[in-house]
Amino acid sequence: MSSIKIRTKRMDGNTQIRMLIAHPMEHGRNRDVKTNALIPAHFIQEITVEHNKNVIITGNTGANISKDPYFAFMLKGGNVGDKITISWVDNLGNEDTQDHIIN
Amino acid sequence: MTDSRRAFIKKSVAISGYSMIALASPKANAEWLTETTSTDILQQTLKRLFKDQKIIESDKIDIRIPKTAENGAAVPITVTSSLNNVESIAILVEKNPIPLAAKFELSPDLAPFVSARLKIAESSAVAVIVETDQGFFTASEKVIVTLGGCEI
């Protein structure tokens, strides 16, 4: 199952894009409760949002973003049936992509 | 009389010695300063991100964030702006060890609107920097965090 959940909503001619990504977002200064060892940093570094294959948002994120990050953006226009693609890359090289059709 | 003069000489030698040490290591001193004063880290981050661009305070940036946050692990923030031609929006938390939280480059198809959830380690100001074709604009909002600390 993909780690990205996407919801879109048409609002007064605009489209709100909301996303929820399942990710630990560790900043590297936390310690394991049992072993007291540092938990290595593990966070999303890059988020890309595409609208019908045109890149509309490129975001650089740091570990200051909460665990399981949530973002929302407002697209001017946007029609039912348009395709939204969201992808992320984290500092360990993991990545994920998810498509969504505006409904 | 001679005693006090001797004490004076001793002290002055000691003081000049200390100042010599301080002068000999200005670099170490500077490092110590940047490590302990977080505003310097914020300034450095701003410099690195935006080079030496002029950043102007603006009231056309609206930051919606709770004034007091019970849990610093997830503080919702919504940034909207009435500025024209917004190119990017950056969010910084002043007192976090690494201030920059996120920077989004928005294409002209997008309205200047970003919503996210932040980790805030302690009560701090949250600054937003908006880049437009007219230059850089900033606004900030203070947040009081009742439960923060290192565990977030």
Description of the molecule:
- The complex is a heterodimer of chains A (103) and B (152).
- Chain A has 103 residues and is mostly beta strands.
- Helices cover 0% and strands 52% of the residues of chain A.
- Chain A has a four-stranded antiparallel sheet, with no helix packed on it. A three-stranded antiparallel sheet of chain A has the order 1-2-5, with no helix packed on it.
- In chain A, β3 (44-51) and β4 form a beta hairpin.
- The radius of gyration of chain A is 16 Å and the shape is elongated.
- The two termini of chain A are 21 Å apart.
- The model of chain A has no long low-confidence stretch (mean pLDDT 91).
- With 152 residues, chain B is an alpha+beta fold.
- Chain B has two domains: 2-35; 52-147, SoxY domain (Immunoglobulin-like).
- Chain B is built from three helices and nine strands.
- In chain B, strands 1, 3, 5, 6, 8 and 9 form a six-stranded mixed sheet that branches. A three-stranded antiparallel sheet of chain B has the order 2-4-7, with no helix packed on it.
- In chain B, β5 and β6 (100-106) form a beta hairpin.
- Chain B is elongated and about 80 Å long.
- The mean pLDDT of chain B is 80.
- The chains are: A mainly beta (103), B alpha+beta (152).
- At the A-B interface, β4 and β5 of A face β4, β6 and β7 of B.
- β4 of chain A pairs antiparallel with β6 of chain B.
- CATH architectural name of the largest domain in chain B: Sandwich
Q: Biggest sheet of chain B: strands, sense, closure?
A: 6 strands, mixed
- The CATH class of chain A, by name, is Mainly Beta
Shape of chain B: elongated
CATH class of the largest domain in chain B: Mainly Beta
Distance between the termini of chain B: 63 Å
Class derived from helix and strand content of chain B: alpha+beta
Give the count of structural domains of chain B: 2
Largest interface, chains and sizes: A-B, 30 and 31 residues
- How many E-type strands of chain A? 7
- Give the domain tally of chain A: 1
CATH topology value of the largest domain in chain B:
Immunoglobulin-like
Q: What assembly state would you assign to the polypeptide chains in this entry?
A: heterodimer
Instruction: Kindly provide the radius of gyration of chain B, computed on alpha-carbon positions and rounded to a whole number of angstroms.
Output: 22 Å
Helix content of chain A: under 10%
For this structure, the CATH topology of chain A is Immunoglobulin-like
Query: For the terminal residues of chain A, how far apart are their CA atoms?
Result: 21 Å
Q: Considering DSSP H and I runs of 4 or more, what fraction of the residues of chain B is helical? A: 25-40%
- The side-by-side strand order for the widest beta sheet of chain A comes to 4-3-6-7
